[in-house]
Every structure is written in structure tokens, then in C-alpha cells.
């Protein structure tokens, strides 16, 4: 059975993120009113509303990690309205390293991401890393 078309779209989105192709993300992946929810108790936790705030969040990820933040995609699942990315998150900062599994849960509308929840397997080391 063939994958749903949104699976391929999401894979292309993760690839664009890895290349730093924000134009692709802005034009092809994110609805203008996209909202990212980042859980936890750390300086990055919170809600980011709109493409510009989401890109600001991405910029902070890179700034705080000295450009080392990366995602390794394990799998992507999607249908018309929802998607899930199973990823491994890696980064370094201030002599610390993080290597942790995470899930990105998406709401989709017309193939574009309208909402995202980032959930990590263990919030304590994730929060400690970003503090």
C-alpha cells in the first residue's frame, strides 16, 4: 500500500528543516496561522503563534545549540488531518549533550501544518539541557 501524500510532504519538510530551507517551510509546509506548542520547563517551552514566531523558535534552537541542533527522522505517519513525526533530537551546548527521542504531532489542513505539539520521551534531561 502506498503512503498517504502527506507522509511525503512531511518528509520533505523535515529535509528542508535540516537544510535550513525556511522558504520551503514558509511556502509549502506551514499555514500562516501555524501554532507550535513546546512542552517543558525550560527557556524554549511555550506557544509560538504564526510563521514568524515559529521561525524565531527555530532560530533560538540553533542559537542556543551553537548550530548543532538536528533531527533524525525515524518514521512519519499521516492522513488528511493529522501527522506524526518520530524523531531523534541531538544538540550540544555549554559542554552538555542531548540525544533523545521525540514525537511531533501535527494538525494538517490542505497539506499544511496548522498546529504542532513537540513531546520528548523524558522531559527532565531535555529541560536540564536547555536551562
Description:
With 131 residues, the chain is of the alpha+beta class. The protein is built from four helices and six strands. The chain has a six-stranded mixed sheet with strand order 2-1-6-5-4-3. Strand 1 and strand 2 form a beta hairpin. Helices cover 34% and strands 44% of the residues. The mean pLDDT is 96. Helix 1 (5-19) runs antiparallel to helix 2.
Write the layout of secondary structure elements.
Elements: H1 5-19, H2 22-29, E1 30-38, E2 46-49, H3 51-64, E3 70-78, E4 82-93, E5 96-109, E6 112-120, H4 123-130
Parallel strand pairs: 1-6
Antiparallel strand pairs: 1-2, 3-4, 4-5, 5-6
Helix pairs in contact: 1-2
Shape, principal axes of CA atoms: globular
Q: Which residues form runs of ≥5 with pLDDT under 50?
A: none
Number of helices: 4
Please provide the count of β strands.
6
Helical content class: 25-40%
- First CA to last CA: what distance? 44 Å
User: How is the largest sheet built, in terms of strand order?
Assistant: 2-1-6-5-4-3
Q: What percent of residues are in strands?
A: 35-45%
Over all CA atoms, what is the radius of gyration? 14 Å
Which structural class best describes the helix and strand composition? alpha+beta
What sequence of helices (H) and strands (E) makes up the elements? HHEEHEEEEH
Main beta sheet: strand number and arrangement? 6 strands, mixed
Q: Whole-number average pLDDT?
A: 96
Amino acid at each position: 500500500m502506498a503512503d498517504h501524500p502527506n507522509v511525503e510532504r512531511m518528509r520533505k519538510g523535515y529535509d528542508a528543516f535540516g537544510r535550513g530551507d525556511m522558504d520551503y517551510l514558509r511556502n509549502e509546509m506551514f499555514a500562516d496561522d501555524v501554532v507550535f506548542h513546546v512542552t517543558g520547563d525550560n527557556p524554549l517551552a511555550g506557544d509560538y503563534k504564526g510563521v514568524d514566531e515559529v521561525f524565531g523558535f527555530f532560530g533560538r534552537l540553533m542559537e542556543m545549540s551553537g548550530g548543532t541542533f538536528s533531527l533524525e527522522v525515524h518514521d512519519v505517519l499521516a492522513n488528511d488531518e493529522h501527522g506524526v513525526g518520530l524523531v531523534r533530537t541531538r544538540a550540544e551546548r555549554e559542554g552538555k549533550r542531548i540525544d533523545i527521542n521525540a514525537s511531533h504531532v501535527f494538525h494538517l489542513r490542505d497539506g499544511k501544518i496548522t498546529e504542532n505539539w513537540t513531546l520528548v520521551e523524558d522531559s527532565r534531561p531535555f529541560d536540564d539541557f536547555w536551562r
